[in-house]
Write a structure and sequence with these properties.
Strand order of the largest sheet: 1-2-3-4
Structural class: alpha+beta
Keywords: Coiled coil
Coiled coil: 62-107
Distance between the termini: 143 Å
Shape: rod-shaped
Region (Disordered): 115-146
Number of helices: 2
C-alpha cells in the first residue's frame, strides 16, 4: 500500500490541537502523527474535513495578504507624502538659488556698466569728438587753411 502526503491538517483530539500530515492510502484518507501510521476508525478522515480545513487556511492566508497589502499601501502613502515634502523643499531652494543668481548677474552688469562709464574721462570724450570732427573735414577737402 502506497502512502502519499496531501498536506497538513489541524485536528482537535481530546481538546488539544495536533498538526498532522494527511495521507492518501489509496483505500481512503488517513493521518500520521509523529511518523507513525494511525489505522482504524480513529485515523480515518473525511474528504470534507480536509477541504474545510484547507478552506479556512486559504481564508486566513487571504486575510494576511489583505492586511499586508493595506500595510504596504499605507507605507507607500507615507513615503509619497515625505517625498512630496522633500521635493517642495528642493524646489524652494532651487527658486532661491535662481533669484540669487539673477541678483548677482544684475550686480555684475551694473558694476561693468559703471566701470565703462568711469573708465572714459571727459577729456577722452573730447579728444574722440575732436578726432571725428577732424576726420570729417579732411575727407570733404575743406581742411584748415594756413
Amino acid at each position: 500500500m502506497r502512502w502519499s502526503c496531501l498536506g497538513k491538517l489541524v485536528c482537535l483530539d481530546n481538546r488539544r490541537e495536533h498538526l498532522r500530515d494527511v495521507w492518501d492510502t489509496g483505500a481512503g484518507l488517513g493521518w500520521r502523527r509523529y511518523g507513525k501510521r494511525c489505522r482504524g476508525k480513529r485515523g480515518q478522515l473525511h474528504r470534507d474535513d480536509i477541504k474545510m480545513d484547507i478552506g479556512t487556511q486559504i481564508l486566513d492566508l487571504k486575510e494576511d495578504i489583505l492586511s499586508l497589502r493595506n500595510d504596504a499601501r499605507a507605507d507607500i502613502k507615507t513615503l509619497r507624502e515625505e517625498l512630496t515634502g522633500e521635493l517642495a523643499k528642493l524646489s524652494n531652494k532651487q527658486a532661491e538659488a535662481t533669484r540669487q543668481m539673477e541678483d548677482l548677474g544684475n550686480t555684475l552688469s551694473d558694476m561693468i556698466d559703471s566701470r565703462r562709464i568711469g573708465a572714459q574721462p571727459a577729456a577722452y570724450d573730447q579728444e574722440m569728438q575732436d578726432s571725428k570732427k577732424n576726420s570729417r573735414t579732411s575727407k570733404t577737402g575743406a581742411g584748415d587753411v594756413i
